[in-house]
Every structure is written in structure tokens, then in C-alpha cells.
Amino acid sequence: APVKVTKICCIGAGYVGGPTCAVIALKCPHITVTIVDLNQARVDAWNSPDFALPIYEPGLVDVVKQARGRNLFFSTDVDKGIQEADLIFVSVNTPTKKTGVGAGFAADLNYVELATRRIAAVATSSKIVVEKSTVPCRTAESMRTILEANSKPGTRFDILSNPEFLAEGTAITDLFSPDRVLIGSLQTPEGKSACQSLGDVYANWVPKDRILTVGLWSSELSKLAANAMLAQRISSINALSAICEATGANIDEVAHAIGFDSRIGPKFLRASVGFGGSCFQKDILNLVYLSESLHLPQVAAYWRQVVEMNEYQKSRFSKTVVDTLFNTITGKHIAVLGFAFKADTGDTRESASISLIRDFLSERAYVTIYDPQVEEAQIWLDLSEACPNTPLENIKKQVTIAHSALEACKQKEAVVIATEWKEFREINWQTVYDDMSKPAFVFDGRLLVDADKLRKIGFKVTTIGRGE
Ligand code: NAD
Ligand code: UGA
């Protein structure tokens, strides 16, 4: 019979491990969930008495408030967490490799391997080990080899793949009612039984027909495929936005018209300054690397183009700003609204805003940044990384951080909207206009403002995907 899971350990208390396992704890009061991480500061933040959690995610504090101390625990004692659990999620980071074979493309599996080796080293009873991190196809095979080569007599390990599909900013609603939960296992009796054990955990709140069970390799590949297809939609609509700008067509109208076709569907067709976030680019490059290692160069080139189109979109937008401001922004003052990679998150990984600001700084403009969630220290860190040859004190001569959108726009020559924060929809543009240098320019990289209304006030407005 399948093992009835009563103790779960999650290795990795990040954007995925934290919210995912907090929701499992909330929905399964009979299961003890311990989330472990090596990063003491992160664990302390998860445990902070005033719920100053390490990540901002709408609804997350409520979930943690209900479950923490009841059946949800955060700890740096990785070994104890492993020993006590009957099911272990591996939810560590899998960034793009920076050096060595596959640098710039392949996933760095060092963290997954270290976590796996730790499980093998300290486990004294049988475990179901679940790959939660996004990994290349067939990683479960390597995990199994490591575990089996190091296991103690009498302990067996079953490996499952259970990729996560939540999006940041909507993580809690995504976890409460997922489109689907995907579980991959070996198609052996033991594999299927482990699959059933994990499926039973999700069945506490997810309808059975949304829990999909497939083979291990299909599960691993489906995660990369889903992200690649989603990102491909954005690059497709962004490629069309360039045609719109050149022809006078309107990308909103085009997206609306094609989205009405039920085979295409209306979601995820919003033209933008480019997609960001920790995963799209990383996972596509991972797929490109996989294709190349399988000797499928045409397949690799096809997916690589999705990332190249995104790079083009970002640089095309910077160039539009420079061109419109009479071909030079040297010494000009620009407000950038939004630093996070999307609304409702404080996450800045691969944010398009960073590329724009880097471009503006290299043109020697002055930039004032406002974001409702991103912390100042994070902004300085990201800009230092984006401009490796400029010392931070020099960056600080060109960049100011403001505490409201109004303050950021004061006396500037141009306002650039980089993130679709709801509060930017509610800006009083008349007040902004009155305090700006003239002519006053707005560059809308997120299809957020009512361009006609702003033009009536007196602004010169440039919107992504709209010709004059
Ligand atoms: P993250 O960097 O926020 O969190 C990973 C955590 O793992 C870090 O806190 C790190 O300290 C910890 N860690 C690393 N090695 C460890 C070890 N050996 N023992 C204990 N802790 C260790 O990363 P994330 O955004 O949560 O992503 C995790 C995985 O989930 C990645 O593979 C990512 O591709 C995937 N994913 C992310 C998202 C997302 O929205 N961020 C969505 C779906 C899937
Ligand atoms: C994405 C996927 O949506 C999740 O399903 C997946 O689990 C996750 O990646 C992951 O594997 O990490 P996320 O990156 O958090 O989630 O956020 P998205 O909502 O997908 O947005 C990604 C980027 O695309 C953002 O910069 C967003 O602004 C941009 N975007 C999104 C557009 O430019 N246009 C759109 O129509 C949609």
C-alpha cells in the first residue's frame, strides 16, 4: 500500500519552497511540514515574530500566520528535517551555469546534487524524494544513482518529479487552485505507489481530475516546455508590437482580435518591454542546451530565438527613448517607475527595468527609480551587477531612489513605465505634468496609461506597440 505521508521536509525556503509548503501545511493540518534552508537570515525572516517574511507575495502572510508553529516550521537544521520526514521536496535554486561546460546555457545542478547527497548521507529510513526544482530532462536519474550509491541498508528511495507552475505575485491563488498538479514517476509498482502517496497529499484540496500522473522524463520536460511556450507567446506578441509601431497598427487591438480565436486564447498576450523573472530565460536556455546536447541544432535555434527576441525588445525600447528625446539623453533626468520584473512581487531577477536603466546610465542620463516593493539595497546590488565596470559610488552619482511615483517624476524630462504596478494606473497625471520639465515625455512599456488622456494634458506619449 502507498505510504501515508505524515511528515514532509522541504529543502530550500525560497520563492517556491516557502509558499508551496506553507500552503501544503495550511491545507493538510495532519501533516507536519518543516522547511529547511542553509541561509540563516532567510530562515530567521520566515520565523520573524512580526511576519516580516523574506519574500513579498499577496496572501502569503495570512497562510503563514495560520500554520506556523501549528504544523509548519522553518529551520536551518537540514539533517534533522531530512531524518524525520517520509517525503522530501528538493526545492533549491537551479541557476544558469556561469562557468565551465555549458556556461551561459546549462542549469547549474550543484545545489540539487548537494541536497541529494545530504539526503543520502543522513537518512536512516526510506524516503520519497521529490524534485520540485526545475531541472533538465533526466535529472531524476542522476539523483537516483547518487541516492542508491550512498544509501544505508534497509533504506529505499523513490524519486518523483513534481514541477511547480506558480507565478510570482499570484503564488497563493495559483497554489490554492492550480490548473494542474503534475507528478512524474517511474512506471514500476514502487514508482506508482510513491506517486499515489504524493497525489494523496494534494488531494486534500486539489480536485482529482487536476492531478496528472505521467512518466518521470515527461514530467521534467513538461516544465521546461510550459515555460518555453509561455515565453514564446510573449516574444511573438512583442515581435508583432515592433510591426505595429512601424505601421500604425495597435498591438492591443491585434492581441484582442487574435485572442478571440479559442485555439489561441486571450491570456498572456500582453506586449511589454520584455519578459523578466528568474525562470523564463533560464529554462529556455536550458532547453536550448538540452537540444544541442541531443544533436538537434534546428530545435535549439528555434527556442534560442525566443530569448533573442526578448533582448531585442528591451534594447529596442531603450533606443526609442533616446531617439524620441532628440537623439540624446546625456545629462537628462528620467524617472523609471517600477523595478520588479512584474507587479505584485519584490523580485527583481532578470527584470527588464534593470536593462533599461543600464542603457540609460551608459548614455549618461540621470535616473530616478521608484518601486513600491523593491528594497533600496536590492536596487544597488542589481545595478552594480548590471554595470560591473562602474564602481557603486559612481552609479550613485547618476541614480536616485524615490519613495513615491510623484516624487520620482518631479522635474524630470521623461517618465518610463517599466512595471505594471496597479498604483501606477492611479497616478494623478495632471499633477505629474505640472511639476515636469517641458516638453514632458511618457514612455509606456506596459500598456498601462490612457495615452489620449495624457496627450490632452500635454504629454508626449510613446506606447509600446502603437504607431502614431
Ligand atoms: P530561491 O533562490 O528563491 O530559493 C532556493 C533556496 O534554496 C535558497 O534559499 C537557498 O539558500 C536554498 N538552498 C540551496 N542549496 C541548499 C541546500 N543544499 N540545502 C538547503 N538549502 C539550500 O529559488 P526559487 O525561486 O525558490 O526557485 C527554486 C526552484 O524552483 C528553481 O529550480 C526554479 O527554477 C523553480 N521554480 C521557480 C519559480 C518561481 O516563480 N520563482 C516557479 C516555478 C519553479
Ligand atoms: C512564470 C510562469 O508563468 C509560471 O507558470 C512558472 O511556474 C514560473 O515562470 C517559473 O517557472 O518560475 P513568473 O515568471 O513568476 O511565472 O511570472 P509571469 O507572470 O509568467 O511573468 C513573467 C514575465 O513575463 C514578467 O516579466 C511579465 O511582466 C511578462 N509578461 C507576462 C508579459 O510581458 N506579457 C504577458 O502577457 C505576460
TrEMBL record:
The record, for InterPro entries, names: 6-PGluconate_DH-like_C_sf (IPR008927), NAD(P)-bd_dom_sf (IPR036291), UDP-Glc/GDP-Man (IPR017476), UDP-Glc/GDP-Man_DH_C (IPR014027), UDP-Glc/GDP-Man_DH_C_sf (IPR036220), UDP-Glc/GDP-Man_DH_dimer (IPR014026), UDP-Glc/GDP-Man_DH_N (IPR001732), UDPglc_DH_euk (IPR028356)
**Mind telling me which SUPFAM superfamilies this protein's record contains?**
6-phosphogluconate dehydrogenase C-terminal domain-like, NAD(P)-binding Rossmann-fold domains, UDP-glucose/GDP-mannose dehydrogenase C-terminal domain
In this chain, NAD(+) is annotated as bound at 12-17, 37, 42, 92-96, 133-134, 168, 279-282, 349
Give the catalytic activity. UDP-alpha-D-glucose + 2 NAD(+) + H2O = UDP-alpha-D-glucuronate + 2 NADH + 3 H(+)
State the Gene Ontology terms under molecular function: NAD binding; UDP-glucose 6-dehydrogenase activity
What does the record list as GO biological process?
glycosaminoglycan biosynthetic process; UDP-glucuronate biosynthetic process
Which pathway does the record list?
Answer: Nucleotide-sugar biosynthesis; UDP-alpha-D-glucuronate biosynthesis; UDP-alpha-D-glucuronate from UDP-alpha-D-glucose: step 1/1
Task: Keyword check for NAD, yes or no.
Answer: yes
Q: Which domain of life is it from?
A: Eukaryota
The positions flagged as active site in the entry are 279 (nucleophile)
A GO cellular component annotation here is:
nucleus
- Which part of the chain is the UDP-glucose/GDP-mannose dehydrogenase C-terminal domain? 335-451
- In short, the EC number is 1.1.1.22
For this UniProt record, the keywords arranged alphabetically read as follows: NAD, Oxidoreductase
Q: Which family does it belong to?
A: Belongs to the UDP-glucose/GDP-mannose dehydrogenase family.
Q: What PANTHER family does the database record attribute to this sequence?
A: UDP-GLUCOSE 6-DEHYDROGENASE, UDP-GLUCOSE DEHYDROGENASE/UDP-MANNAC DEHYDROGENASE
The name this protein carries in UniProt is: UDP-glucose 6-dehydrogenase
